[in-house]
Amino acid sequence: MPSIPPDLAAFLVEAKRRTYAGLDDDATVAVPLLAGSKQLEHRAPPYAYRDIYFGMGFFAGQETVSRDDRVIWSMSYSGGVRAEITERDEFLAIYKFLRQALLGVSVEAPYRGPRLFEQMGMVYRNEIDGGLERFHGLETIARHDGAQLYELRYGGGLLR
């Protein structure tokens, strides 16, 4: 396995807080590399972070971290709100809550949000297996009454 750069986790936390979690789609670059995608970027040399995704209700995407112009880490993800949730206001409330949870990303687990976050009548859970070099996880949002609203699966690690 390649060695983990000691400052990679801290960079990931900063990048995630300064893109989707902190700014929503306002962090999107004007002309994305892939037509029809949302593309969010953050740079703090020698690192560059890029998150490209498609869709809203159900979405799929990939985050990459480059060091000195070479991609060294990646995470793929897909998921979204339950298919029966079709009201735009409900989508927006769920994703607003998700961004609040994602602001809780930590250096110890710099993938998505914390293991548990509760607010606005919703509960965010994040089950993580593995470490920065190779990991996978499941992120869910439910109402306090247990009704499932959202699910996302993710995985990735250091490239070699």
Beta-strand percentage? over 45%
What is the helix tally?
Answer: 3
Shape: globular
Report mean pLDDT, rounded to a whole number.
92
Total number of β-strand segments?
Answer: 8
Structural class: alpha+beta
Task: Give, in spatial order, the strands making up the sheet with the most strands.
Answer: 1-2-3-4-8-7-6-5
State the share of residues found in helices, binned by percent. Answer: 10-25%
The stretches of 5 or more residues where confidence is low (pLDDT under 50) are none
The largest sheet is:
8 strands, antiparallel
Compressed to H and E, one letter per element, the order equals HHEEEEHEEEE
When the domains are counted, the total is 1
As a whole number of angstroms, the C-alpha radius of gyration is: 15 Å
* End-to-end gap: 8 Å
Briefly, what is this?
By secondary structure, the protein is an alpha+beta fold.
Give the SSE map.
Elements: H1 8-17, H2 20-23, E1 38-44, E2 47-55, E3 58-67, E4 70-81, H3 88-102, E5 116-119, E6 122-131, E7 134-143, E8 148-158
Antiparallel strand pairs: 1-2, 2-3, 3-4, 4-8, 5-6, 6-7, 7-8
Task: Tell me what the structure shows.
The protein is of the alpha+beta class and 160 residues long. Helix content is 18%, strand content 46%. The chain has one domain. It has an 8-stranded antiparallel sheet with strand order 1-2-3-4-8-7-6-5, with helices on one face. Strand 1 (38-44) and strand 2 (47-55) form a beta hairpin. The longest helix has 15 residues, at 88-102. The radius of gyration is 15 Å and the shape is globular.
Keywords:
single chain, 160 residues, alpha+beta, 8-stranded antiparallel β-sheet, 8 strands, 46% strand
